[in-house]
TrEMBL record:
GO terms for molecular function: DNA binding; zinc ion binding. This is THAP-type domain-containing protein. Gene3D superfamilies: THAP domain (6.20.210.20). Pfam families: THAP (PF05485). It comes from Gasterosteus aculeatus aculeatus (three-spined stickleback). The keyword Mitochondrion does not apply. Transmembrane segments: none annotated. The keyword DNA-binding applies.
Amino acid sequence: MPQHCAAYFCANRRTIASRTRGITFHKFPKDKHVRKKWEVALRRDGFTASDSSVLCCEHFKQSDLDKTGQIVRLRDGVIPSVFSFPVHLQKLERLMKVKCSPKTQKKK
Ligand SMILES: [Zn+2]
């Protein structure tokens, strides 16, 4: 069975077709704390990542990906941040951003 991206509303699977489209899949981090952050970022109720869970590259910012090598890697400690959530969850996100963003937003 092809691996499926674990993100909400994402239909990407690990297939030859997705590979030719340049979609890469990334396993959940082994580090418990970082993995927890990924699970929280996904916002799927009751979801727990397994060792075979993957996310596709569409949920990461370009700057989170290291494309210098032959395979695309994630930079250390990166948290997925690009999701298309249902509307009610997006509203929640906006509220949360207002409350707690200034510190976490870094601009070059
Ligand atoms: Zn995905």
